[in-house]
Design goal:
By secondary structure, this protein is mainly α. It is built from 22 helices and no strands. The protein has helices at residues 6-13, 18-25, 29-57, 59-76, 83-96, 100-115, 121-149, 153-156, 158-172, 180-183, 188-206, 213-232, 240-244, 247-276, 282-288, 290-301, 309-327, 336-364, 370-396, 402-424, 440-446, 448-452. The longest helix is centred in the middle third of the chain and has 30 residues, at 247-276. It is globular. 54% of the residues are buried.
Amino acid sequence: MASAVLNPINSTLIAVALIPIGQTFGAGPAHTAWLVSALYLATAVGQPVVGLFVDRFGARRVLLTGALIVMAAGIAGLFPISLDWLIGVRVVLGIGTCAGFPAAMAVLRRRAEETGQGVPARVLSLLSISAQTIMVVGPTLGGALIGLAGWPAIFAVNIPLAGFSCAFALLWVPRDAPAAGRRASIDVLGIALFALCLLALLLFLMEPDVGDLYLLGIAVVLAGAFAWNELRAARPFIDLRMLAGNAPLLRTYLRQALSFVIVYSIMFGYVQWLESARGLSESGAGALLLPMSAVAVLAAAVSGRATGIRARLITVALALTLGSVLLLFVDTGTWLGVLIGLGAIFGLAQGLTSVTNQTTLYGQAPAEQMGTASGLFRSAQYLGAIVSSTLIALCFGTHASSAGLHRLAWTLTGIGVLLLAVTVFDRGLSRGAVASRPSEAQDGRRDPQRAKA
């Protein structure tokens, strides 16, 4: 669980540091946005790859390796050579922090299979609460760290955190099966094609332009080559047949991506507006988000049940849509109490969305592919984060103004309506406790005749 929070904390600490880092290097929002996008780009590509390594080599080995990479990146961040250097450090952080979530999910699923228990709802809820707490407290903590030691402190904090992760992995994570994963073949070509395809797509999404449409063409070609390879591989990197036959899992990925386009747009775009247009300090902007943090943690704490999935997901979509609409009426003269209430609305959605979709994923993904499926789940989340960075850059331009915030709000409202439609019309969610039983795809693996039917 300690390793699982490394990614959320690095995702959110940076939120209040974008303005001071930009001032240090004379860069505007469009350039500093790469500090956000770089981590998400590395994570979106790396999560399913690291998830595969968890499935093949074991959670303990992967957790220790990831923690050491994070520690090295934390040390490198203490040397602010240039903005590009820091962007590179964020890439390394993204790779190192990939290990936590798929490893945690794989360990939980393995223990549940061994004991014959169902969904470990309380543990899943605790995992999500930990991540949510770090995620929503991140801006406040980041503001405090910057106030005490300057913005390099948001990189330095990774050194002790990675050390704790190593200690916890050694003490509490079960030893991996000796050499079992080493005998299993790795679909290297599939991994390479997937990474290059996603890289081309994300590079276009981060700075969309007519002149860069060739990147979409490259992504399509690579996607075709990836599909051809995966369908022929004896042990594919991503089981496309399983995904094609598991529409509920695909819709879970889509909901996660759409939700986090809005969540991260608020986390980074709204915070920049508070600092740049509203004139709050880094610590002041972080403190203003404390009510959002509290609501998110409480919402995550009460949403760990394996029942009531559909109602909670509809609540998420409604809250995100309502909050986006209310942003249209916010300007520099808006009363602070209104801003606090607005943050609480987004906090409700943020607290519910991850733990609910995570619980759904647990029941929909095959046990033997839980690491890879969990990695794809996080990739969907960070694809949403990258899209949010693009939206922020396009809507704000060189300055985080109220007019830019309103342009962002219109876009987020449209995304919220789409999320609501995807959720309301998902008949798979109305089956009851979707996460309380194995997925249909997993059942099909055990009974080929049933799968054909």
